[in-house]
Amino acid sequence: MIAKVTHYQSKLLTQHICTNISKKRDHELTWKILGSATSAAVQHGTPEVIDDSTSAFQLHKAFQATLIDKDEKENSLHKAAKLAPPYRISVMTGAALQMQRELQWYKEVENFMEPSYIKATNKNKKTPKMVFMEEHKDLLLEAQQWMKDVSSSSTVVAALIITMAFAGAFTLPGGNEDNGKPLFLDRAIFMLFIVSDAIALFSSTASVVMFLGILTARFAADDFLYALPKRMTIGLVFLFMSLAATMIAFSATLALVLKDKVTWIAAPLVVMSCVPVGLFGWLQFPLLIELVYSTYGPSIFSQKKN
């Protein structure tokens, strides 16, 4: 609560400073005060300061031309290309999402820049993109490994579900009559078994395809911005669907087989079959939600943090 109040008061103070400086109409004073603040905000990943400054003055072009570090000969995009502090990176789950957030921040600042500043070099003859790749080379390797590990583990689970669903389609509960007709064909719960088994087979196959697409990707830095998180999101969604459908098919099988024999044990077994789905949801759903929000949610400058 104290942190939220402090953040809100800091935001009000920033807006108040911007408003009062803009009234003085002194360009040198404006950029002497706000220039260093905005440059530091770009480097440390604080979109509120940049948003308030640019909204107050509407001087995006001056923002690009003025904010140049004379010692390092670096513009704002060079600053944004630097690796963010640990406390900023650690808010995201996994190295892949951390790499995605770094790319999103870099792209957001790049949108404010003129083309000449995007390719400008610093005193070491490095463009902002070169600085970004150098600063994030270790994080990129960690992101690649994290993505491969998650995809490999998920592929194994999806492959097991494919095996069970495929076998279940040809080993029907209750067996067949002499004419080959399924014994429980006329029961509604048998149709539930057939539909859920088919969904499990198709969704797990789609999940394997998506995770194999990740494992065979080139893993370039820009791929972590959208392509790889999108594949991971789709793969996890299909994996969850296949797991849930498999448990439904299993529950339907128990209900068919035990309904006329040991009725009292059918209900507890059905409830127990839901435990794996619940565990998977508890462990994986937060990651899935974070993937969706980070990939398809509002941009960094559009997120309201007050």
UniProtKB/TrEMBL annotation:
InterPro entries in the cross-refs: PGG_dom
Q: State whether keyword Transmembrane applies.
A: yes
Q: What is the lineage of its organism?
A: Eukaryota, Viridiplantae, Streptophyta, Embryophyta, Tracheophyta
Bilayer-crossing regions: 156-176, 188-215, 236-258, 264-283
> Can the keyword Transmembrane helix be found in this entry's annotation?
yes
Report the protein name in the record. PGG domain-containing protein
Tell me where on the tree of life, at the top rank, the source sits. Answer: Eukaryota
Write the record's keywords in alphabetical order, separated by commas.
Answer: Membrane, Transmembrane, Transmembrane helix
Domain PGG, by residue range, is 145-256
User: Where is it found, in Gene Ontology cellular component terms?
Assistant: membrane
Annotated source species: Deinandra increscens subsp. villosa
